[in-house]
Amino acid sequence: MAPTSQVLIKHSSNVRTIILNRPQQLNALTFEMTFQILELLHAYEDDPSVKLVIMKGEGRAFSAGGDVAALVNVSWKEGATFLSRAYIVDYLVATYTKTQVSLIRGIAMGAGAAFAVHGRFRVVTDNTLFAMPETALGSFPDVGASYYLSRLPGFFGEYVGLTGARLDGAEMLACGLATHFVPLEKLSSLEDALCKANTGDPKIINNIIHDFSNKNPTLKEKSHYFRLKTINRCFSRRTVEEIISALEEEGDKNMDDWLSWTIQTLKKASPTSLKISLRSIREGRFQGVGQCLIREYRMICTVLQGKVCRDFFEVPIYYFIYSIKSWNNGF
Fold first, then answer.
1. What is residue 318's predicted lDDT score, i.e. its pLDDT?
2. CA-CA distance, 311 to 270, in Å (whole number)?
3. Among 150, 212, 223, 269, which one is most buried in terms of CB atoms within 10 A?
4. How far is CA 252 from CA 104, 245, 249, 323, in A?
5. H or E segment at 145?
6. pLDDT tens digits, residue range 15-47?
7. Can you tell me the distance from the alpha carbon of 61 to that of 170, in angstroms, rounded to the nearest whole number?
8. 3-state secondary structure of 181
């Protein structure tokens, strides 16, 4: 195991494992980490001896996303430089010529989730927790989120992107964000098997993961995915105001905890962020991953400059950062 500051690299014959290594900060991404990952991915893609690349996080998170606190304390140009590297990493992962496997254990949020979700094989487990909480932070789901959220069943992507709903591993598999679900107790054995196979053949890799997988993990009783019909009726509306009105109409018929939570979450989020997010996801349906990343990068630079509104700089960021640590207390 060779250390490179906040990123660890594990060499196993023709397999390379990239490990995000800021466990105390839930592997929140820094400029240094992003730059190192970018260099490693480029090097491995050009190295004929590397057949398979595995990405995972140290500790109880894959990655809680970009270091938001750092972003609001630098100039917008410095923030834009950091984010440009993250966007390039996402494009590289999405178009990678080598076989790549993401082992998504624990929290995967925002930019951290994007590193995994853009990959070919996306393995989740019992304690995986996915969320795109940007609208609560005065921003919008970026780093290619408009590409993959817009391709979820129905209007589930709009729901996840606007509300920041937390999805577990079973829900990620059901909606297509994940390709496989492997029970937590088998995850280390899967990693060992991938390293021992010493191949980058996608068919063989898929079969190995399949052998360790639970093909039909049980969705929890109150799963967001069970509300897909209502989500489609409401989140298919043209504007944020119409979405909220549709949800309230549903509540007039039969208000329950999920409807109440969804309505209140939308009303507490940044109105500007909601509008930007909705339009971005809608446009993403008709664009490739590269087009989405280019458009989103231009958008996030505008947010960092505070040209549209100042919500990103005024939300209780530190409260949010510390509160996410309670999301997976049992993990």
1. 46
2. 7
3. 269
4. 39, 10, 5, 32
5. helix 145-149
6. 999 999 999 999 999 889 999 999 999 999 999
7. 17
8. strand
pTM: 0.92
Query: In this structure, what DSSP letter does residue 29 have?
Result: B
**What is the Cα–Cα distance from 266 to 247, expressed in whole angstroms?**
10
Q: Give the tokens for residue 290.
A: 């590269």
| Phi/psi at 117 (5° precision) | -70, -25
Backbone angles phi, psi at 312, to 5 degrees: -60, -30
Q: Which amino acid is at 90?
A: D
CB distance 173 to 152 below 8 Å: no
Residues 130, 113: contact at Cβ < 8 Å?
Answer: yes
* Whole-angstrom distance, CA of residue 79 vs CA of residue 85: 10
Q: Are 36 and 86 in contact (CB under 8 A)?
A: no
Angle between helices 271-284 and 156-163 (to 10 degrees): 150
Contact between residue 89 and residue 38 where contact means Cβ atoms under 8 Å apart:
yes
| Alpha-carbon gap, residue 128 to 181, rounded angstroms | 10
Say how many C-beta atoms besides its own lie within 10 A of residue 319's C-beta.
8
According to DSSP, residue 75 is labeled -
The pair of structure tokens assigned to 305 is 């400059």
Dihedral over Cα of 67, 158, 293, 328: its sign: positive
Span 127-139, pLDDT tens digits: 999 999 999 888 8
Contact 38, 44 (CB under 8 A): no
HEC assignment per residue over 108-133: EEHHHHHHHHCCCEEEECCCCEEECC
Q: Phi, psi at residue 53, to the nearest 5°?
A: -120, 125
